[in-house]
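Quick one, probably user error.
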């Protein structure tokens, strides 16, 4: 066959295979009610799989709903969604449950992930320490995304960086968990980190 001859001669078997996009697992983590399920739902190209349970009166006494009074459900296992970044890469998103009592599931959810996005509500910084610690201790690349509830964040990026005591290599970005483009940009920051890790 000369170089100018087409690869396809009629038989399907002779057609060059089109590779499916590379599947990449990423975790959306953070404290209770910071917007993890919202973020997965905003970006997923499939109907996201959710495991929401109603917040009972008993749980409402345990979980702080002060800043999210409209919240009526909570994730009890995980969120799942996906987004094709380009023809070569597809992100599979796994959202963690936010409540501490479901922390035992995190290892299973994070297994095999290239990185994580830790969502933070700047009105309740304390709630995200556990998630930040989790990724730091396991040396999993992660970025911190400040969810701009009601369009604003309570502290500057530098103040949050200082309060969380994250290394200068950890990107801190502001985003809106309800906005598809905003979530996409935040995920791309994590992806870039993960790629740099594999190349480095
Ligand atoms: N105003 C505003 N509300 C938001 C934003 N993101 C999430 N919410 C609301 O905040 C509440 C919490 O969102 P969820 O997505 O359920 O939070 P979560 O982190 O998945 O919560 P758990 O799984 O229970 O830990 C919901 O009532 C959302 O509608 C945001 O960016 N701005
Ligand atoms: Mg949730």
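Nope, works fine. Designed sequence:
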């Amino acid at each position: 066959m000369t170089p100018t001859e087409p690869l396809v001669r009629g038989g399907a078997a002779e057609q060059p295979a089109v590779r499916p996009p590379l599947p990449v697992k990423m975790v959306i983590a953070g404290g209770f009610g910071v917007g993890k399920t919202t973020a997965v739902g905003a970006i997923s190209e499939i109907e996201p799989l959710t495991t929401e349970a109603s917040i009972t009166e008993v749980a409402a006494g345990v979980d702080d709903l002060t800043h999210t009074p409209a919240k009526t459900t909570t994730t009890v296992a995980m969120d799942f969604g996906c987004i094709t970044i380009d023809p070569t890469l597809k992100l599979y998103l796994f959202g963690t449950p936010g409540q501490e009592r479901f922390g035992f599931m995190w290892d299973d959810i994070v297994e095999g992930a290239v990185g994580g996005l830790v969502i933070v509500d700047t009105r309740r910084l304390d709630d995200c320490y556990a998630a930040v610690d989790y990724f730091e201790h396991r040396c999993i690349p992660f970025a911190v995304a400040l969810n701009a509830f009601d369009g604003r964040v309570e502290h500057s990026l530098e103040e949050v960086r200082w309060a969380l005591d994250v290394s200068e290599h950890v990107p801190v970005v502001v985003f809106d968990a309800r906005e598809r483009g905003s979530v996409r940009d935040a995920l791309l920051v994590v992806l870039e980190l993960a790629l740099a890790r594999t190349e480095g």
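Residues 1-8 have pLDDT under 50 and may be disordered.
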